[in-house]
Hints:
mainly alpha
Amino acid sequence: MSESDARLARLVAPVSEGLLRMRQILEAQVAESSRAVSDMTDHVSRFRGKQLRGALVLLAGDATGNATDEHPAIAAIVEMIHLATLVHDDVLDGAKVRRRVACVNERWDNQTAVLLGDFLYARAFALSTDLSSRLASRVLSEATRRICVGEIEQAALRYDFELAQETYERIAGAKTAVLYGAACELGARYPGGRDEAGALLAQFGNSIGLAFQIIDDCLDLVGEESVVGKSVGNDIEDGKLTLPVLHVYRGADEATRAAMRDVYTGPGLQQRLSVLRSVVDLQPGIEYALERARTLVEGARARVETLPQSRARDALCEIGGYVLERSW
Length: 328
């Protein structure tokens, strides 16, 4: 077990029993008699990674004194939605590798990958209808809508070097932070009421999720595929402007700006990430983005520190640091 994995195992130890139940539910929900589908769900099971979002449902429930027997099912629903977004994201990005194995769109094709993502969404929302409260269905359907809007807006704003940081964060938040926020909100609120705790934990999750996405954008620029475990340089290939690049662009002279634009838009250009690294020093942008992520994590930690002391609350406080230090 790596040092990172050992740290996460320690953080989620307070909800280890709930996580085991979550995984059992998840396995049962994606099981399918069709050999074609089961081959794909077996393959995509290797994308599950750290299952951090599901753990946040359970930790938020424990930290607020709101854990119920249905929280593991909610965690499984959140993880299925996350898996669906990964499969669809890989199609949108033209990615080849995730978790060190071939993406679904690479091993099969784009059409099949889209259908698998739809299958996972369907299973997730079918399970949500079996719960005793409609709250999970409402919160997660809204989260899914916002994820789709974020992806559409990002596609519409490709190659926009004048993109404001506020707009970048709104889109990044919709793509990633919204599911973190929904996971934490449901942990604190389900099956209903407890609006103040839900709002507090939703804010915590949104901040952690946005920090996670900013780190991810940094890794796409300076990470190594063998360490990150997935394709890097996809944002540049797809014309997506992220915070580190936007910061460097704003501080560059016009000749450097023109060179950066050419890297993104030049037809037929190979290895765009390597070329970008050769025309501009990305480090100032990386440092700026990391500082922004640290600020978000500090704010998130300050929110949950207002909760009564418990192992779950302490784990939530430490998860922000885990996100900042990740290299995967």
